[in-house]
Structure formats: C-alpha cells, structure tokens
C-alpha cells in the first residue's frame, strides 16, 4: 500500500492553475524526487501534502486513509526551502521546543537531540543563537529538527542549498539511512545530479501538470538514444557499416556510435572484432536526468506565464 497517494489534485490561485490534475503515489521507503522548472507547482503540491493548503479538488490518501492534516502532521517532517527558525532563540532550546511540538516528551527529545548533535558534530552549538549560525549550519539544524521525531514521511525542499560538499555528503548518508529504516522521503530540487545520486523514483511537473514519472532507471531507459561508447587501443580506420553510425570521435581513442533500428550491440561488436584494432571497452550511454529534463521542458518560458484559471 502506498504511504502517500495523490488523486487528481488541483489548486488554482486567482490568476494561475498552480496544480492542475496531478496524480501519483509513493511507496514506503522510497526516496522520491519531485522535479520541475521554476513555477511548475512543486511548492504548491508540497503545501497541500503538508496540510498548509487545502486542495481545490482531488484527494490525498496518507497511509491508506484520507489525509487528515491535524492528525497526520505528527507523522510528517517538512523542511521548506525558506528557513523557519527563531533567530533569537538558543539552538538547543529551539530543537527541544520543535521536537516537543511534534509530540516527543522532553526526555525523549533531549536524548534524540544529543544523539543527532553528536552524529552531525553540532555539540558545541547548544548555547549559540540561530542568528549566529552560517547558512549551512542553520540548514543542518533545520534538517535535524525535521527528522528528529522519525516521521513516516520526510519532505525536503532543496536540502543541500548552502551546504559544503562534506556536509552535503553527511546529510545524504543520513537520508539513505532514514529511508533504509523505513521513512519515505520526498526530495524537491533543481539539481539533477543530486536526484540521480539519491532518488529511486521521480515525478516531473511542468505548468502544473505531471509530465513524467517512474523509476530513475526506467526513465533513463525510456529516453535512451541507442548510443554506445567503444574504446580502442587506436581508433580504427574503417567505420562504415549499416548497423551503426559514428556520432563522435573522442581524443581518448574512443568512438560514440548510434546503433540503427533493427540492429543490436552484438552487430557493432562483430564488425569491430573483424578488424585488427583491439577493443578496450564497450558501454551504453544513457541520458542524464538533466538532459531529459531539458528535452521535456524545452520551449517552456524560463518563468511561467500566467494562465487564466477560466482557460
Ligand atoms: N500565493 C500565490 N498567489 C498566486 N499565484 C501563486 C501563489 N503562489 C504561487 N503562485 C503561482 O503558482 C505557480 C506555481 O508556483 P509554485 O511556487 O508552486 O512553483 P514551484 O514549482 O515551487 O517553483 P520554484 O521552483 O520557482 O520554487 C506559479 O506560476 C506561481 O506564480
């Protein structure tokens, strides 16, 4: 049973169809990437999933039942892109306060905060104020306060912004661990390389509509262009054959070939094996999510045009 199921969700602002009939479901333990260009409708979707906005139409099912924000919010951790920390409050007190809001007792909260602060090397921060933290440090604090109560659903909007590579890796590892121990993660970002590394499933939204979803592996397979890289000890002189065409010659003695319809990698290998140049490598080139993203939203204006709700 999915942990979260969106059925035909709609949210219209006065001048804009922000979310226009979006459906998808997320299984427990998945790390799900919600992608889309600026203005696509991601934040509006996340705000409905966290009970900040009511949908105008459609249904949200959480753990198999109609979503009840007042009750279910205890099981959701949301780290929004904009920071929501109290600047003047001390860090330890703030973490304690936010954890108790999520239903933990003071003792439970204290123990968990100490564990997380040790794990993320934040012990010396306890008596500092949030206003004394750098952007990356407050990002770490916000991550801890989002996941501390072990929510079933963790929603992270651009969680790595402001983090250096070392801290990004630390947080990435924690996300994997949380998913392994059963939490479901929704991860919203524009950084496609992070999505490839972290997510197992994705949905791509554009202009308020879902235009693609599936496993990262499956999506890449769907958009592949039959391109292969063949490495040689020295580039062969003859490359003409009906099975393929050479798209590019690389300086590292490799060729990029596109296999024609009706032929297979074996046909290409057979051709080159007949020659005298030893082959050193052979691998398929799959498109990056970035290439797929750009291909699908190409032609879309950089910032979304207003679309009249009556249209
Ligand atoms: N409060 C609002 N009133 C009117 N229109 C809004 C409001 N909030 C968002 N919109 C519009 O709804 C659309 C979707 O916005 P949303 O913030 O959900 O997009 P997004 O995918 O999160 O974008 P970004 O990646 O830039 O954060 C945009 O066209 C935006 O102009």
Automatic annotation (TrEMBL):
Top-level taxon in the UniProt lineage: Bacteria
Matches recorded under PROSITE patterns: ABC_TRANSPORTER_1, ABC_TRANSPORTER_2
ABC transporter domain location: 4-232
GO molecular function list: ATP binding; ATP hydrolysis activity
SUPFAM superfamilies: P-loop containing nucleoside triphosphate hydrolases
InterPro entries recorded: AAA+_ATPase, ABC_transporter-like_ATP-bd, ABC_transporter-like_CS, ABC_transporter_ATP-binding, DrrA1/2-like_C, P-loop_NTPase
Alphabetical keyword list: ATP-binding, Nodulation, Nucleotide-binding, Transport
Family affiliation: Belongs to the ABC transporter superfamily.
Protein name: ABC transporter ATP-binding protein
Species: Flavisolibacter tropicus
Lineage: Bacteria, Pseudomonadati, Bacteroidota, Chitinophagia, Chitinophagales
